[in-house]
Each structure stands twice: as C-alpha cells, then as structure tokens.
Amino acid sequence: MTKYILASASPRRVEILGHLGFEFTVEPSDAEDKLKKDFNKLPPKEKVEELSFIKAADVAESLILTKETEEGDAYIVIGADTVVAVDGEILEKPRDRADAGRMIELIQGRSHDVYTGVTLIYIPKNILENRGVKEGNKYLELFKILENQMNEGEKEEETSELGSIIKSLLNENKLIVRTFSEKTEVSVYPMNEAEVEGYISTLEPYDKAGGYAIQGRFSAYIEKINGDYSNVVGLPAGRLYHEIKEVYRCTTSLLKTI
Ligand SMILES: Cc1cn([C@H]2C[C@H](O)[C@@H](COP(=O)(O)OP(=O)(O)OP(=O)(O)O)O2)c(=O)[nH]c1=O
C-alpha cells in the first residue's frame, strides 16, 4: 500500500488534500528556516518549486532514515510553497501589521500572480526495507554529516545541501521526484484606507502569502481570478491529482530498476 504524507503545517493544504479523497498524515518540515540560502534572488516560479522540493526532501529523508515501516509500505511525500508576485516583488507572509498594510496597499486596485510550487517524492518500499543494509548506512552517514554541518552553522553552500540524499537516490533511479508549479492571476478591487485598516486588524493576513486570504474576509475585494482557485489557497488540486496519477504511471519503470 502507498501512504501519503503532507509535508506542510498549512491547514488549508490539509483541507484541499482531504477533498481529493486521499488518506494522509501530516509531517511539517522546518527545513525552510534551517537554510541560509537566499531564495529571494530566484524568480517566483523557481522559488516556490525549490522550496517545495526542500520541504518534501526534508521529510522524505527523515522517513528513509528513521521511520519504522509497516509491512514495507511505499510512500508519497507532498511538499508545497506559495508566494504572491507583484511588479517583480515576491510577497511571503507579512512580518507584522505594517508589513501586512504595505502588502495590501500594493495589491489593491490591480492584478497580481499567485504561484504555488509542489514536489512529490515517491519512495518505493524497497528503499525503506534496505535501510539496515550497507547501502542504507551510507545514506545514514551522509545525513549525519549534513546535520552536523547545519548545527555548527558552517558555510552557506554546505547548509543548503538539504535534499542531497534524495538527489543521489534519484540519480541512481531509485525514487520518483516530480516538481511543478501553477500560476493564478488574481484581480483585486480598489480599497480605501478604512478598508485596508479594517482588514489588517483581523488575524487573517498573518499566516498567508501576500497578507490576504481569498477564502476568507478578503473575498469581499476579489474582482476575478484567472487560473485555479485552490492554487491560491495553497495547493493546486486538479494538477496535483493528475501529477499523482503520473507518478503511479512511472512506478512501473522504476520498479524494474530496483
Ligand atoms: C494568497 C493566499 C495564501 N494562503 C496561504 C497558503 C499557505 O498556507 C500560505 C503561504 O505560506 P507557505 O510558506 O507556502 O506555507 P505554510 O507556512 O502555511 O505551511 P508549510 O511551510 O508548513 O507548508 O498562505 C491562503 O490561505 N489564502 C490565500 O489567498
């Protein structure tokens, strides 16, 4: 049986994946905070794709190295990241009230893009079953070295090596990794000062990219969208379902190589 793991603390992602009918467990990753790498230099599409990979790879690596498996299950780990992009600036979650106000001022009365990147990592049961043998130990050692480097706060290139176990397994054709992203264009009605103030006085902006929730009070200010609605809320449901189907299509060739 294949088990699904959502590598995200976002309650919106839990809801969207639940709607798709998958049974899954939630194991959030704090890999993003561990990295010193400056993702802000990347364009939004690359940034969300890279961060989704980092989150999924972090959870997949711990799974490969530590998880007690039941009767040799296979796993699909799902990582995601969402940002708002306006005039070449990337808006993540606002730091404070002033930052939330700045973001709402920036996006009101015009359109912006919301990007969500998703990474799926399929771990066949054979990898988990082989953990105890020689090859498994090789990865365990690599993982320990990386962890020590992070603890000691060593050089930036080394701390950004998170995901290298997944990459080396992928190179050896032992995993399936699929990364993709969706863009949704969102047009926001003009807002007056009282409306901006009123909105940032709610708790809504503070855990959302761009400082707003299309699914909440901010719906009052949404004029139209072009693209997938669920993508704005944190997970592009339709694309995700079809990408998971594609993963299963690829498992046939993967299993031949293990
Ligand atoms: C634009 C927008 C974003 N969001 C949310 C989706 C994401 O949860 C959040 C963007 O932050 P992310 O950093 O993508 O995700 P997260 O911190 O919530 O969870 P994790 O890192 O553990 O995966 O913003 C909405 O809920 N509604 C919206 O309209």
UniProtKB/TrEMBL annotation:
It is found in: Cytoplasm. The active site is at D81. GO terms for molecular function: dTTP diphosphatase activity; UTP diphosphatase activity. Its cofactor is a divalent metal cation. One of its GO terms (biological process) is nucleotide metabolic process. GO terms for cellular component: cytoplasm. Gene3D superfamilies: 3.90.950.10. The record marks R12, T82, Q215 as: Important for substrate specificity. It comes from the Bacteria. Pfam families: Maf. Belongs to the Maf family. YhdE subfamily. This is dTTP/UTP pyrophosphatase. The lineage of its organism: Bacteria, Bacillati, Bacillota, Clostridia, Lachnospirales.
